[in-house]
Amino acid sequence: MRVAVVTESFLPTLNGVTNSVRKVLEHLRLRGHEAIVICPKAGAPAEYAGFPVHEVTTVNLREFPVGLPSLQVDQLLRDFNPDVVHAASPFMLGWNALATARRRGIPTVAIFQTDVAGYTERNRLGAMREVTWMFLRSVHSLADVTLAPSTHSIRDLERNRFERVTTWGRGVDLEAYHPNHRLAPDADELRASIAGPDKVVVGYVGRLAPEKQVERLAQLRGIPGIHLAIVGEGPSDASVRAALRGMPVTYLGRRSGRDLSLAYASFDVFVHTGTEETFGQTLQEAHAAGLPVVAPLAGGPVDLVTHGDDGYLFDPAFSGGVDSMRAYVERLVGDRMLRARMGEAGRRRVLDRSWEGICDELLGHYGDVIGAAKTAAAFSLE
């Protein structure tokens, strides 16, 4: 199979879209398929997983590279002649690729992953929200199928009259994130550098950006025996530091690979703060690492956390009371056995979500749209 992966984000930018695309490319190589990558120009490597990477003309929108439509995309698709086009979180570049693929009769799969409409509202562009949904609907209407990661995102898409939508989740590396890593000497060293053995480390992993609402951790101020550990960086760094000033907190910066695995291994509780996640990959990583999770009752986390079993879902509208983030964190901080039980339940929950299995499922979606295109072509000849 020949797959053209057109993505709105790629290396060196690290985010959920980039990480998913990397896993897909690695799996395509594992299964012996051919691929190319088309992405915005931002200093990407010349190849990834042995596949060529092609950068296209780009503008920066609030420091985020946005690929622009161009004849280059048409030329790349013509030269590669793919069996299917995979549009990752399609926006301007994805629209270009999907339109070109439709004109050339190439089957397409679009991955819905970023709440672009929510981005407009967060950045005081709320008047553009409906326009943005209209644009996204027109983009995804060009795809043979749209794959969304959660029931929340599917409801959002269907409410905005998107068609041909089905579910494709995200995998998690069950070896990189494992409870046994807590026993590693370098995990002990990191844990000791964060807090003493009598403290409960409450960790967060993710970008420090407005939509992540990391400032919400200030609601944990004054809980006895906790120490916060924050992994990530981003435009809200100063705002987060100001909100948490005076609290016991260690900033671990951006981490990846083994360093990220050790960070999870140094936590006792994982807290997710943002209410606008289409999925919530870090929650799966925390569960794989054997951690109880506290997250908002909103968006993707609703599919990933079973309240009272492997974590808690708090009401994001309240900073206090029995259903608040603070109340659930306090409960976990005060009960070691509860943390252990929920951590074990979280690990069991993700055992069937390896990236290999999830990406094989994606190959099935590729096969479906390719098969449908062949059937349609056969009927047209009759």
Give an overview of the whole structure.
By secondary structure, this protein is α/β, with parallel strands linked by helices. Helix content is 41%, strand content 19%. Strand 3 and strand 4 (51-56) form a beta hairpin. The protein starts with a strand and ends with a helix. The model has no long low-confidence stretch (mean pLDDT 94).
Helices, by number, come to 14
Note the beta-strand portion: 15-25%
Strands, total number = 16
Binned, the helix content reads 40-55%
Unreliably modeled segments: none
Distance between the termini: 27 Å
Shape call: elongated
Q: Tell me the series of helices and strands, N- to C-terminal.
A: EHEEEEEHEHEHHEHEHEEHEHEHEHEHHH
- Give the strand order, joined by hyphens, for the main sheet: 3-4-2-1-7-8-9-10
Structural class: alpha/beta
Q: Largest beta sheet, briefly?
A: 8 strands, mixed
Assembly level: single chain
Residue-averaged pLDDT: 94
Radius of gyration: 21 Å
List the helices and strands and how they pair.
Layout lengths: L1 E6 L8 H15 L3 E7 L6 E2 L2 E6 L1 E4 L2 E4 L3 H10 L3 E5 L3 H13 L3 E4 L4 H7 L6 H12 L4 E4 L2 H9 L5 E3 L17 H10 L5 E6 L20 E6 L5 H7 L5 E5 L3 H10 L2 E3 L9 H8 L4 E4 L4 H4 L6 E4 L10 H9 L2 H14 L5 H27 L1
Parallel strand pairs: 1-2, 1-7, 2-4, 7-8, 8-9, 9-10, 11-12, 11-14, 12-13, 14-15, 15-16
Antiparallel strand pairs: 3-4, 5-6
Helix pairs in contact: 1-14, 4-5, 7-9, 10-13
